[in-house]
Structure formats: C-alpha cells, structure tokens
Amino acid sequence: MPPLLRLFGARRPPRSPRLCRHEALSPRILPGADGVRIGQISDVHARAGVRPRRLEHAVRMMNALRPDFVVLTGDYVCVTARPAALLTLALSRLEVPAYAILGNHDHWSGAGQVASALERAGVDVLRNEHRAVPTALGSLFLVGVDDSVTGHQDPERAFRGVPPEATCVVLSHDPRSVSFLAAYRPALILSGHTHGGQVVLPRVTPFMAARIGYRHLAGLYEVDGALLYVSRGLGAALPLRFRSPPEVAELTLRAAAARLEAASKGAA
Prior knowledge:
globular; six-stranded mixed β-sheet; about 25% helix; Purple Acid Phosphatase, chain A, domain 2
C-alpha cells in the first residue's frame, strides 16, 4: 500500500462487505410492489488465480437475508474472463432468483464468456431486455440496460413492451445513465461502477468525480423523479479502498400511496 495513504489511515480492504439497507419510497411504486426486498451485489472484479472470497461472503449474506430476488449490476471480472468458472461456482449457491447486467470490464474482457458463466450459475442475464417479476399483488418490471460506458446500451429496446403505469426497476451499471433513463419514468435505478469513489478524500474526491461527470458516487438519490441507488460494490480494478468500504445492499420498495393510506388509518 502506498505510504501516503497509510498516513491518512488507509487499510487494505476488509474481506467481509458491509450490509447497507435502504427503503426506496416513491409514488412510482404501486401498492402491489410495496414491501418487495431486492438484494444488490455489484463490481466483484474477480481476478485470475484469486478465490473470490468477498463474493462468497456476499452470497452467504444474501441467503441469510432471503430477499425476493438479487440483482447483479456488472463488472464481475477485471481484465480477463478467466475467473468465470469461479463466478459460476460462487453464484450457483444463491438460494433466491438472480438477475444480472454486464459492465464495462465484462465487455472489455469477453462479454460472451462472462454472460455464460452467470447463466451457468442460474442467473438470468438481461442485455437490453426486461422481465415481469411476480409480487404479492401483481408484478413489477425489471429492466436490464446493457453497459453504456462501452456503448452497448439500448434503452428503447429494453423498455419495449413495459406498461407505462407499471412499477419499473432498472439495472444499469454506470449511474451517469440516469441522464437518459429518467425519460422512461422508472421508480428505481440500481447502479455500481464508481466503487463509491474508491479513495475518498473529503471534498477532493467529490470535486474530481464531478469534473468527469460523476455526481452520484454512493448511496440513494432522487434524480428527475427517479430514485437512483449507487452501490460501492465489492471490489475494484485496483485492489485498494480508502473510506469507501465494500458493500452489499438490500432495498425495500415502498409505495408512497400505500404509506399514506396506512398513516391515515393509524390516525383515524
């Protein structure tokens, strides 16, 4: 580790990711989707010859949480698809349905191999397409938009056939994609890619990130009526983090109308 970062108190990233839980409240979430829990794993960045222990731990965490389904939001490898078999082994242990999109590193390293590894693990890979996911009182639509960093996005194709009034959750690796996804009126967009800034120095990292277009580095935001959640992810292309711990997330959908109705009944 560079001595300068040691002076600031940096440590090698811990093996176990932090669990981040959030409630996503939106008028675009219909009552039928209220209470749906979504687990998110992002930016694994598995390396050739290195066992993905953090991913294995994340899978165990998801199995203990038992969300309604898990989403994987890209960048499973770094510079080669050779760790694909390790991804298959780890993700095949998920005990709930899982859906995935690809990230820029996956395209650079071999998108076909990475997608095949995910599919062998039982993960449904969405490449500019959507799925109707059953809920207690109906369904929500999960839309997977392919990576925009490498120019593989096709939101028009991905949203084709999604009812305009439906509860819509979008997977898109790069959070900057909110600039063109907001027009489709999603309730929630789930992203990664930023690693939370990776090396976070107060004021410096947000300023530098904003200069290159990254205004949303980690956490939950509201952008043009849509909720955007940016995961810090599990790994990074360069295996160093400072004040940006690895994470897995659980987001619970909350319908604004259902919350208002419950509040009014409680006050009566």
